[in-house]
Amino acid sequence: MTNVMDLQxxxxxxxxxxxxxxxxxxxxxxxxxxxxxxVSVVLDGHKALRSIRIDPEVAGxxxxxxxxxxxxxxxxxxxxxxxxxLAQKLGGxxxxxxxxxxx
Length: 103
Description:
Elements (H helix, E strand, L loop, with lengths): L1 H26 L1 E6 L4 E6 L4 E6 L9 H27 L13
């Protein structure tokens, strides 16, 4: 009976840790940029796009293709920064574990 109680305590602790992590990820902000800062994006810890800033200089009609490439590059830069922060925060917690959606 003690083993079942211990298992329930472990499951409860894991759920609480997961809830705290999810809340912390929601508050995390990572900014990525491209084109020397002409385009920047901010992602939260869930890699949801929170904001985008485009320098008016690159918004000319002839520059649409370049602008699209810059947005993709800035988004990917911010996503990589989220991964870095997560790796630091998780540290040895999951040493070697690949958690889908996190890393």
